[in-house]
Write a structure and sequence with these properties.
heterodimer, A: alpha/beta, Rossmann fold, six-stranded parallel sheet, 17% strand, B: alpha/beta, Pyruvate-ferredoxin Oxidoreductase, domain 3, six-stranded mixed sheet, 43% helix
Amino acid sequence: MSAHGVGLDRPGQLVLLSGNEAIARGALEAGVAYAASYPGSPSAEVLGTLAHWAKRFNLYAEWSTNEKVALEGAAAASFAGLRAIMVTKPDGLNVAFDFLTSLSYSGTRGGLVIVVADDPAGHSSTKEEDSRGLFKLAEVPVLEPSDFQEAKEMTRWAFALSEELGLPVGIRSVTRLSHARGNVTLGPLTGPGGRPRPAFRPTDRYITLPPAHAVLHRRLAAAARAADQNEFNRYRGPEGAALLVVTAGPGFRYAQEAVRLLGVERWVGVVKLGMSWPLPEEFLIGHLRRAREVLFLEEVDPFLEEGIRGLVAQRAAELKPLRFYGKRSGEVSGPLGPGVGELNVDVAIAALARVTGVAYRPRPQSYGEEARRLAGELPERDVAFCAGCPHRASFWALKAALELDGRRGVILGDIGCYSLGAMRTGHYALRTLHAMGSGVGLASGLGKLSRFGFDQPLVAVVGDSTFYHATFAALLNARYNGARFLLVVLDNGTTAMTGHQPHPGTGRDALGEAAEVTSVEAVAAALGIPVQVCDPYDVPLTTETVFELLQEGGIKILILRRACALLAPRMMARPRARVLPERCLGDRCGCNRFCSRAYGCPGIYWDAPAGTARVDQAVCAGCGVCADLCPGRAIVVEAPENLAPEVLEEVRQWSLPRALST
Amino acid sequence: MELAKSPLNLIIAGVGGQGNVLASELLATAATEAGYRAVVGETFGVSQRGGAVMSHVRVFTGDAVGPLVPRGQADIVVGFEPLEALRVLLDYGHPGARALVNRRPSYPLAVLHGEAPYPPPESLAAAIREITSETRDFPATDLAEQAGNYLAQNLVMLGALAGTGWIAIPVGTFRSVIAAGFAGEARDLNQRAFALGLAAATGEGYSLR
């Protein structure tokens, strides 16, 4: 919806944008020519938005097969003189990291901006890595926008700064900016007319060799000057505040709100940094000179805290004795401890209250006591596969096959919606969960241990998008070095977790145009690995197929192919499941409420007063797996009524991604 | 029209897949068009898959505020699901808070698996009333079905919110934001759902006529 605001050519207009859209708008205002990313939450909407506007603004946007390729492509555009942006989550910066540490040595030409959206608290991630540490390690300057307007302005500035320094410039966003929304005043758009013709000039060389390290350090000295002289360093508070809150990113707003709610405006000042590395040393020293105490509010690691404490040690002669409060000393802590979980306004308020000794009581202490008594224990709400999700059926079949096999088989997984295979909704199927494609690498290790007596069957699972991103080298290694395992590709025809982006198997590119299809089957054939396809909704056949493949041994690929249930035709035109009351015996059946209790699909629940299972039509996707699994055959699936034959055919076929069905 | 206070803190509480993100975006857009400033904090991605989700919407004038409502400071809780409405109120509510609740429960996995009971609906309703100054509840999922699709309960609830007058945003502003934000069938459906929610809240009956 608000993607509309991103492309508006109305300078001065106030619009509502997410942080990711604001970053995209900043890139458009800077005249970006090349954009690349691999989808990762919470960063995915930056490239999605740029792709949406790519034709109109004559820019190139792609979903790359992984982040290293994405960064190499963006750097190439920079070498040729164009402005380029690469977008990722921290996991992806890890993937691109080898190239990034080389790139800072070689330097860049056209503005190159690397946007990393961290996910403190891991709202949609497996870990909460702080990318500022990576930028520092790669010796790349990094900026931290605090709100939506800054996200746009900083992105625009980052391109110019990159060109000035001859270095890539990082932007560290976080979930509470990327996936939050707020007001942004639009600036002028740069038309497609003014771009240079890309070329390698006769003298251009981008060579990573040790002597380049000294050049890099000269560039970083210029970056440190830029850190001190930019509009994004801000101070809010009284002249010469005794207590300084030092912050960057959304922590700025949390800090201001905490100061306001505690009523300590008269003696607490908030220092907000624009660049987190290198530090704006003179700006900081200027404020620290008059302070007695410093409280650090930042997301995840004590990154500024450690850097500034180092700076203070080095410049001690210019300063009064200072007392520090933060994650190192423990005053800044969420419920899981300092340095764990996200910084939010409540953590900021608690930290400031602790340090200032000012009490904070937003409501009577007894609030909610009576309500808790009335409602009783509130059941937790675990994340769950969607109703009709093919992964639920796939994990059921895999576990059933391993039970039948009886040799204590192990399922190894990685990152995607199917990570939920490690949880209740996935029947606790996964035994390992690490980086993209790591289940395959681990299987290629375990699959060679039979010489030492390891005799458990191995199943690695990956999603289709992950298959293209991160498994080829592990598969090649497995085949080359003789590992044995079954690779199951959970092919739902999309990159589901991050918002249904296309990948090399879908036949569509980032702009929705037709693209060459590389099927999983074709890759398997090229690697010389036998491959089969099965429909996970057919649980009995899938179970049998997995069982047989495990008996055969060797390295095999099984594709479990069904479209993501969220992509199926919505609601009105889909099959309807229904429990037949005369067949469902309820607790007299002996099934122990199999459909809801064991299979655990949110589309079917136990109707206690009626003593029978019931389908929730507002949730059920009509996949029919429960009908197959019900021991009493009490569930039926009916085609939707009053549908034209061709629509009915489409409904019947909806599981097959168009590009993959041919 | 003027805001009752600034920032006015609202939280939409629900379950992944219920359309929190869209509802909060429409509300914040309407607030912006009505001349206020707005900020929305939420999570999506894998957290949406059947888990509890919250969208924090803060409508304000003057100095910018952060995207998250501090605990104990939510003025309005819009519950797309009753259990989640109570859960959010317990953390974020205060005695002056108001609640707008969809009556239709969505059962957590632990309940489906038979490991925990879902609180009786009348106890949930009583608990919510106990900690709010005013609570109104609606059969929003049923109204959405009447509008043509269960999924549109988020627009029913938005219509109901507009109908309460708890936020000083003209109904016409909501209508124009919906009209501008969608096209074709989705626009028709969302307009019907909004109208049904609005009618339910203003007491003008649920009928499409």
